[in-house]
Design goal:
The complex is a heterodimer. Chain A is α/β, with parallel strands linked by helices. Chain A is 43% helix and 15% strand. In chain A, helix 6 packs parallel to helix 7, helix 14 crosses helix 15 and helix 18 packs across helix 19. Chain B has a four-stranded antiparallel β-barrel with strand order 1-2-3-4. Classes of the chains: A alpha/beta, B alpha+beta.
Amino acid sequence: MNKYEELMARKNEIMKKSIGIDYSKYEKGKLSFDYEEMMKDTGYTLSDVIRIQSDTGVGDTPLLELRNITKLARKVSKNGKAARIFIKDESANPSGSFKDRRATLSVYDAKTKGYKGVASATSGNYGAAVASQAAMRGLHCIIVQEAYDSRKIGQPEILEKGRKCEAFGAEVLRLTVGPELFYTYLKVLEDTGYYNASLYSTYGVSGVESLGYEIAINCRERFGKNPDAVVVTHAGGGNVTGTGRGLIKAGASDTKLIGASVNLKGLHMASDNDFNKKSFTTGHTGFGIPFMTNPDRSDVPRSAARPLRYLDRYVTVTQGEVFYTTELLAQIEGLERGPAGNTSLAAAFAISQEMEDDQIVVVQETEYTGAGKHILPQLTFAKKNGIDVTLGDPKDEIPGKNIVIPDHPSKIYIENHDLNDYRKSYVKNAAMKISGNEILKTDLDFLSEETKQNKEQISRILQELNIVVR
Amino acid sequence: MIKKGTYIEVEEIVLYPNERASHLPEDTKAVPLKVWRRGFCQNDCKVGEEAEIITVTGRSAKGIVTLEKPKYTHDFGEYVEEIENIGKQARDILGVI
């Protein structure tokens, strides 16, 4: 056993200490666990979450109507119709993104339980959110980032996020590419005894419920109805899960929840060479698909992010389309916001054109923009890394080779992905974890809840896999 | 010479190629996993030599000095011609100014 394997073998013990949750008590059947029981065990209700967030200025963000973008969608749609597009301006949160919602509960919980500091493994906005919350609550903060390739070259967006964490007084560990970031992170937890502010803990996910809840309430107060669709940028699944749960808690079960990711097909997420060939560090298929079909792959034994439980539809857009939409948002709506958060906006622009004029589609986030986190440095960086940036039809975009900026707003498309394919993969992945070929009835119920499919549909998949239900 | 107490950055090898996880792509497996940390040096030191730092959370770390008073170098990039017409074209379609 080398030192990597040695530390990884102590994984569960370290995590238990760093988050105060004994995940083993939720396990049941051969592959199942009690998800709702685990979520309930945070001890915080949705109204507690809203109060704790409000104490630190998180949430209650404006829901803005994008009138000019809606008009443009109607101009280019095939039948002249498009739903009204709204955007939840999450950049108004203290650290500039919806991730503040995910950080609040963890940091509050860490403070309440007497931890001296919090830590998190993230190259995204979440690091800044944890750092900001830790500054407010008087806790130390360590953020572990995958920042550079082996030449010490990092994407401008990640460099900016590192800076922001340090601006809030956090210690930042900047690493080269590789999943062993988790090794370094575990070492930090073990050495410091800090709280693991995981994106995937129950706290990290239930904090987003307030966002789905607010969207439904905002729409009912202003328009007397729930939104017809909410489009969510999807990566690790916490955003989709929390928003979906919040909508349901607000009674908006009829609202369609649509996940959107940037298509980075063909790029390997753990590849040193590919690392700087992508222009998006999150919100892409490299996280979106694996986390959908195998959610328990994060820094907690059981992830609270279970996107297939809530998604009604999953679409992808291209990097060029997201850059285009980001520029459009600034130019005709007067809102300069970071590109990654606009993945769902690019998708909503196309989706609105399938809908009626009186329908409402909500883009559920924005993020702050600034040096590094902006289309100019990101496109400049892409060009410097050998990516061909052109104007044309985004259908011609090949991730890692080129970025095609649409030459007309009629060329913003979405690619629909069949959720049934992912549901099937999910069941396959879950079945791989059992020994033998038998599962229990509890497991059948669990798989049905996990994938939002009825038992007959699950049974058919199980039959194909030669798995018997006892 | 960097004076004791100066804010610096140090580099450390976390895992050598032979210690890395087994399921990695070849290009990643061929290089070490490195980490860069920042903090205040505990002795006078030089770039390229080993030094000990104390980080902002009060932790001690050692590594090869890479930067003295590290600055942020990310910016707003170059002028990008490919996006220059997006706003004008949209306004033309909408029939405003």
